[in-house]
Amino acid sequence: MVHYYQFPIPIVKLCPGVQVCCLLAADNSTVLPNPPDPSPPSPEPNPEPRPPKPPQPWPPRPQPIPETTPSVVNPDVPNPDQDGLQIPSVTPGTGCGRRRFPANLDTSLKVTGGDKNVPQQTFYGEAPWMVVILQKKEALTFKCGGTLITPNVVLTAAHCVKNTPIEEISVRAGEYDNRITNKPIPSQTQRVRKVESHPDFNSGNLHNDIALIFLEQPMQLNPVVDVICGPQKGEAVIGSDCVVTGWGRNAQNGSYQAVLSKVNLPLKTRESCLEKLRTSRLGVRFILHEGFICAGGDDKRDTCKGDGGGPLYCPSKSDPNKMVQIGIVAWGIGCGEGFPTVLTSVEHYLPWVQKQLS
């Protein structure tokens, strides 16, 4: 019998080189500052890979207690209404990792979403596990993406939340188009009770870049808010056509996306990834840490600034209709320049995640 695992709700900052802050001023105007160009991870000796222990089931879901808030609004674009959004069809009891689509959607589009070679907008509810990590200082700040792995836990990258006071952080689920305030199903925002970053996280080279965010109250699961599955050992298959979702830029100097977008990225071997990365500014001595995996590398398909902390998910080997989170967007070289996206391997850190959840 195959077991699927669901993750806690994390908070993540966007990856260096794939990271940005979106400020929402008091009048709801949006400011997108230029983040500093982070230094690439430094070369280090390549440690012997250690295989992860076989995963155990996640703890049972707590009863959800909702607290809804309005969505983020970008006043620089026309404010559409909800008429174009259809509440996606849901089959009760299908469990984690189920994408949601409009009931009358052409079934072929559920697989490709259009042209797989370029980024596409998702359907409303297609990635119900996707969350937005927000920070409140003088203004509300968009930090990065994350994934709901249980109703009250988020999985994300450590560089997004490390050294950030938890009282400044909140997590929003059910977001889709940030121009729309009257969605068919309101988004939900929760405060944070606790953040657990990996104890060996290194902010200089982003080794062990993984964190869990525990919410004060669980999210209410509904057609556009649900959890993603965790991977089995050996779930990540080289060449699998996996998907990254986020609101990041569509090019290095491009625009941030109002609507949650997706791009198909196949998993790469460590050898081919390392060979390609060594042709970049990282140089020929660069070593890829055992906790990283790579995906993509085509000129047209890549993550970009604003996508950090978000998921890379693939169809399960045992059930292609279930999506399993394989990676967390960590860092990259530019956007769409032909270099693979580097992600934290979820499978590699499953023992640590399970320990925090227990």
UniProtKB/TrEMBL annotation:
Its main location: secreted. Residues 33-67 have a biased composition (Pro residues). Keywords: Disulfide bond, Secreted. One of its GO terms (biological process) is proteolysis. Pfam families: Trypsin (PF00089). This is Phenoloxidase-activating factor 2. It comes from Nezara viridula (Southern green stink bug). It is found in: Secreted. Residues 68-81 have a biased composition (Low complexity). Residues 33-101 are annotated as: Disordered. One of its GO terms (cellular component) is extracellular region. SMART domains: Tryp_SPc. InterPro entries: Peptidase_S1_PA (IPR009003), Peptidase_S1_PA_chymotrypsin (IPR043504), Peptidase_S1A (IPR001314), Trypsin_dom (IPR001254), TRYPSIN_HIS (IPR018114). Residues 111-358 form the Peptidase S1 domain. One of its GO terms (molecular function) is serine-type endopeptidase activity.
